[in-house]
Amino acid sequence: MIPFYIGEVMRKRAEELEKERKAARAIEKLEDPEVDLVVVTDRGNPVGVFTDAEVVTLIAEKKDMAETTLAECQLSPVVTINELEEVETAATLMNEHGMRHLLVTKANQIIGYLMDKDVRGAVTKDPK
């Protein structure tokens, strides 16, 4: 058993962009080594997640990143988990949805995100 809660291992910096913004802007944000994803919002509410996988899709579809809005992109779905859940619960949820990330919430507000590598990190910190 991994004795960690998501709030202990999550990443607290979640970049956000409104869906009307261009894909090129999201790609710029992904250039930051500390940014793994961009939460795409509609009036502040999350509607999708933009990651390197979406960049690959845009390239394969020969889309113009400077002209394509985030609303026009196929985005990863929003899957959330509460910060007080255990890392094992997050691993199960990621596995069920075939995802490498989850958005972390507190009082129904997104406060960060959890990546598959954060789950792996929790395993290496497990004292057992």
Q: Give the uncertain stretches in residue-range form.
A: none
Domains (count)? 1
CATH superfamily: CBS-domain
Biggest sheet strand order reads 1-2-3
Could you give a short account of the major beta sheet? 3 strands, mixed
Helix and strand element order: HEHEEHEHEEH
- Cα-atom Rg, whole angstroms? 15 Å
Please report the distance between the alpha carbons of the first and last residues. Answer: 8 Å
Give the helix/strand class: alpha/beta
- Please identify the top-level CATH class: Alpha Beta
Find the CATH topology: CBS-domain
Q: Number of helical segments? A: 5
Q: How confident is the prediction overall: mean pLDDT?
A: 90
Strand percentage lies at 15-25%
What's the short version?
The chain has one domain (6-125): CBS-domain (Roll).
Topology:
Blueprint: H1 6-9, E1 15-18, H2 23-30, E2 38-42, E3 45-50, H3 52-60, E4 80-82, H4 87-97, E5 101-106, E6 109-115, H5 116-125
Parallel strand pairs: 1-2, 4-5
Antiparallel strand pairs: 2-3, 5-6
Structure description:
With 128 residues, this protein is α/β, with parallel strands linked by helices. The protein has a single domain, classed as CBS-domain (Roll), CATH 3.10.580.10. It has helices at 6-9, 23-30, 52-60, 87-97, 116-125, and strands spanning 15-18, 38-42, 45-50, 80-82, 101-106, 109-115. The strands form two sheets. A three-stranded mixed sheet has the order 1-2-3. The radius of gyration is 15 Å and the shape is elongated. The relative contact order is 0.24. The mean pLDDT is 90.
